[in-house]
Write a structure and sequence with these properties.
- By secondary structure, this protein is an all-alpha fold.
- It contains 18 helices and no strands.
- Helix 14 packs antiparallel against helix 15.
- The protein is globular.
- It holds the Pfam family Gate.
- InterPro entries: Gate_dom (IPR011642), Spore_IM_YlbJ (IPR014226).
- Keywords: Membrane, Transmembrane, Transmembrane helix.
- It comes from Neobacillus rhizosphaerae.
């Protein structure tokens, strides 16, 4: 009882301080809100919406179950999750935060995952997409496309390590599905596809409308969190809370011979990955390797902003948030370690006079490349796509309310 009252007092004081800070720093709060809004409607919304809609359609048509039967021999021994986890893993890497959490929650609601399996799956299927790592961080902040190879490899290899580590989490569920005992058979996968489609007998129009409705509702929530944490991060800086927390981090950084100037970018990155990565790239006293390790940790930890988005999505199910949070800490450590281990063989290999035959191509992400052009084109057309999609959402919502 005392603990509950203490929590209530703490939350009340925190929100009161936040409200007073908004009044004390109106211009800074407004600028931070605009920054968060621009990030959402230029990049996040138009890049995630197609993935969300298509994924909802794939689940409804039974394609995800089809993929699940095919990938069962891979996902079950490696990560102790059903084959449908392979779909979530792939979509999470392609589309970025918080897609893995949304798809995991959706499959849990559909009964394709047990609670423990869902908690394992969500821990390693949330990641930054390659376009953000290469386009925004490597080229946009560091002006170095080759650095993106290190950041991407460290990020995704770290996620795989987290998945293998989390396979030992939790006790096996007594639930045993028939499909788990089946061997790899294409006929079985096709049969599962057909049965799932028959079970979900919604017309295509209804299925598409539900997919658009669910996806935009999720993205509206994501946008709110992005704007909120952009403001919180700015206020923490002006209230000198970031600097105070950085003093603690300075001791840790000094013990591993990292410059103390990285402490503020590190703390900022714990709240919001974009600002943290940008500030890290601007530190002059640190070597590029040190900045790559700090950025790798920030990307892997994913920031309290993304974690709040994930917590909100998981709250709709019985999936607990604590395993996800612990996994983010391990992901950060794994990613930083991989950045260190791969620095000499991978990054320095690109800058050697004789390019190694196994060098990874990064020309697609350099200045003037089609991928870099696509990234900047998205910033230009993103707001138009966002506004049009919101209008479609309003029309669908109005039609359904009128019909009911």
């Amino acid at each position: 009882m005392f603990r509950s009252k203490l929590k209530t007092i703490f939350l009340s004081i925190s929100i009161t301080i936040l409200a007073a800070s908004l009044i004390s720093y109106p211009q800074e709060s407004f600028d931070a809100s605009i920054r968060g809004l621009n990030m959402w409607w230029e990049i996040v919304f138009p890049s995630l919406l197609p993935f969300f809609i298509v994924s909802e359609m794939l689940i409804g048509f039974g394609v995800v179950k089809f993929i699940g039967v095919l990938l069962e021999p891979l996902m079950r021994p490696l990560f102790k999750v059903p084959g449908v986890g392979g779909f979530v893993w792939a979509m999470g890497m392609a589309s970025g935060f918080p897609a893995g959490a949304k798809f995991t929650a959706r499959l849990r609601q559909e009964g394709h995952l047990t609670q423990i399996e869902a908690e394992r799956l969500v821990s390693f299927t949330n990641s930054s997409n390659p376009l953000f790592i290469f386009g925004a961080v490597s080229v946009g902040f560091f002006y170095n496309a080759h650095l993106g190879v290190i950041l991407a490899l460290a990020h995704y290899l770290g996620n795989i390590c987290v998945g293998i580590f989390m396979r030992f989490y939790g006790n096996e569920s007594p639930e045993k599905r028939i499909e788990e005992r089946k061997k790899f058979k294409i006929r079985s996968a096709i049969s599962t596809l057909h049965q799932t489609r028959l079970k979900d007998n919604r017309p295509i129009g209804k299925l598409l409308g539900d997919a658009v409705n669910s996806s935009i509702q999720t993205l509206l929530m994501v946008g709110g969190f992005i704007i909120l944490f952009s403001v919180i991060n700015k206020l923490l800086y002006h209230l000198h809370i970031t600097a105070t927390l950085a003093k603690t981090v300075e001791v840790l950084l000094s013990s591993i011979s990292f410059p103390e100037m990285l402490s503020i970018p590190f703390i900022s990155g714990l709240f919001e990955i974009t600002l943290g990565s940008q500030l890290t790239s601007q530190v002059q006293d640190a070597t590029l390797l040190q900045k790559a390790m700090i950025t790798s940790f920030i990307l892997a930890f994913s920031g309290f902003s993304v974690q709040a988005q994930v917590a909100s999505i998981l709250a709709q199910t019985d999936i607990r948030f604590k395993p996800f949070f612990i996994a983010r800490i391990f992901h950060g450590m794994f990613a930083s370690l991989f950045a260190l281990l791969l620095w000499k063989p991978v990054y320095l290999g690109f800058h050697s006079k004789e390019q190694p035959s196994n060098a990874l191509p990064v020309g697609f992400f350099e200045e003037g490349s089609w991928a870099n052009h696509f990234y900047h084109k998205m910033i230009e057309t993103g707001p138009i796509i966002t506004i049009f999609s919101l209008l479609v959402y309003v029309v669908i919502l109005f039609y359904r309310l009128k019909k009911s």
